[in-house]
Structure to design on (499 residues):
């Protein structure tokens, strides 16, 4: 596993530079956003998005190099090969959240508007969102390849958004019971996200074990 | 001499192709050349040995251990080189060495760099700037740097220029000086195998036609050339394939001396590996 993570770092090194440049661009945008809460959400959200792109790029690089065929000749179980992608994703999201968190603390402190609880809540929910997104993205990309999975993932993300819009247009309102149930679900989301991530790993492993190279 | 690789009844079925009950045995200190036309099943066989594809039947034993049950342990002892270099183009040789050290327990940085130096593989150039030959040399250095006992090469030298190919073939000959080492090398360029292989396994349409020592093949196989009419009247013993041409026939014989004795008036030449392959593929059976 250690060797595989070193390989990921080496492969993504140049790509990460481009991502960092984008990060600096978002930082400048965030700096001019006067609403501290919105700024935190924006910066955190963007860093999470960049990290997800980075994980996706790692899969694309592997596909381009026909790496899977080669790595499966090495003394590594398929669980370790798939696991390395999941660990990489966790590291990327962790680093992204840490960096954006630090920047948000600095920027908020400069404005003397530091609300630590709000910051943790925003970044925490973004981490949950990132885990759920990766839990969907990774098995789809492993099963269908990077090229095809782009469209599938777009579909997966668009369907709930469109459903939400339809519900909104129809002017449906939720009963008090439903709202409190949803709020309860919100607190359970971190646990749900972790469980989903683990289930996603199990599914990806199953897919990868059946794959032929 | 211990058996390094043993394949028994290996099968893989696809739509329109079937690798049919392949049996092979590779002793230590030897190079086994796997020949056959494109699509004959050479890559399928190598992929099955490595579990890159799932077998339908059969068994693979490497260094006395089961290929599936002891897969991870075995792969510490196996070096693999494919036709394409599978290293990412954004990497440099130094980075390859860095992460391979974390994958193979026996990875030897010194050995890796000594091969790189010998082959002139640059340390600080991106792989995307490498020529095809250089990429192959890097792959071979990487395949040897964890001190494997079995080397599997799938069309690894086929697309290289003669100078690079010779360098690499020399290295293979050095590798098998150790009796605990063996190489399985697939190629459709038979002259490479003529030079280095001890045994030749010929696959045709998914079936093993023969697996014999190269010397034995050179001694026994031959090409009989004669007119169509004379051929029609001949005793066909030891003749396995025939190609009919405008000015006569070319027949592949499996016992050159015996055919010569039976037909002293006919021309029976030695058959090269290429002749054998071509006659099997193009010729008709009797």
């Amino acid at each position: 596993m250690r060797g595989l993570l070193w390989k990921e770092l080496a492969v993504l090194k140049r790509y990460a530079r481009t991502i960092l440049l984008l990060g600096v661009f978002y930082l400048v945008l965030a700096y001019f956003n006067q609403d501290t809460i919105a700024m935190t959400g924006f910066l955190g959200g963007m860093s999470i998005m960049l990290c997800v792109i980075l994980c996706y790029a790692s899969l694309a690089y592997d596909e381009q190099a026909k790496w899977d065929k080669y790595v499966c000749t090495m003394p590594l179980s398929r669980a370790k090969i798939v696991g390395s992608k999941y660990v990489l994703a966790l590291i990327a999201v962790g680093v992204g959240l840490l960096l954006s968190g630090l920047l948000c603390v600095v920027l908020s402190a400069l404005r003397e508007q530091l609300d630590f609880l709000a910051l943790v809540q925003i970044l925490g929910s973004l981490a949950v969102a990132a885990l759920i997104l990766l839990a969907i993205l990774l098995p789809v990309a492993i099963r269908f390849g990077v090229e095809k999975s782009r469209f599938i993932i777009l579909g997966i993300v668009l369907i709930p958004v469109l459903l939400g819009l339809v519900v909104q247009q129809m002017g449906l309102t939720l009963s008090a019971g439903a709202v409190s149930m949803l709020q309860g679900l919100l607190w359970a989301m971190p646990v749900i996200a972790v469980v989903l991530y683990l289930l996603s790993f199990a599914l990806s492993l199953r897919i990868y074990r059946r794959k032929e190279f | 001499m211990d058996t390094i690789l043993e394949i028994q009844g290996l099968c893989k079925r696809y739509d329109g192709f079937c690798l049919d009950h392949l049996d092979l045995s590779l002793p230590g200190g030897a190079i086994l050349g796997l020949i056959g036309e494109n699509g004959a099943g050479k890559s399928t066989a190598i992929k099955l040995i490595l579990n890159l594809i799932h077998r339908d039947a059969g068994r693979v034993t490497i260094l006395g251990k089961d290929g599936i049950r002891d897969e991870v342990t075995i792969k510490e002892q196996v070096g693999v080189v494919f036709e394409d270099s599978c290293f990412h183009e954004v990497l440099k040789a130094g980075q390859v060495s860095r992460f391979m050290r974390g994958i193979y327990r026996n990875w030897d940085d010194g050995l890796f760099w000594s091969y790189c130096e010998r082959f002139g593989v640059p340390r600080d150039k991106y792989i995307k700037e490498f020529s095809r030959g250089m990429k192959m040399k890097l792959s071979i250095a990487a395949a040897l740097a964890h001190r494997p006992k079995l080397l599997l090469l799938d069309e690894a030298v086929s697309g290289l220029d003669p100078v690079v190919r010779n360098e690499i073939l020399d290295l293979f000959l050095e590798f098998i000086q150790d009796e605990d080492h063996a190489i399985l090398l697939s190629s459709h360029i038979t002259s490479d195998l003529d030079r280095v292989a001890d045994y030749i396994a010929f696959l045709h349409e998914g079936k093993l036609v023969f697996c014999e020592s190269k010397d034995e093949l050179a001694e026994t196989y031959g090409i009989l050339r004669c007119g169509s009419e004379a051929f029609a009247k001949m005793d066909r013993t030891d003749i396995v394939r025939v190609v009919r041409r405008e000015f006569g026939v070319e027949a592949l014989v499996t016992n050159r001396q015996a055919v010569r004795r039976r037909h002293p008036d006919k021309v029976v030449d030695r058959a090269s590996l290429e002749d054998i392959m071509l006659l099997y593929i193009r010729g008709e059976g009797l």
Observations:
- The first helix of chain A runs from residue 2 to 31.
- The interface with chain B takes residues 2-7, 10-11, 13-15, 61-62, 64-67, 69-77, 210, 212-213 of chain A (CB under 8 Å).
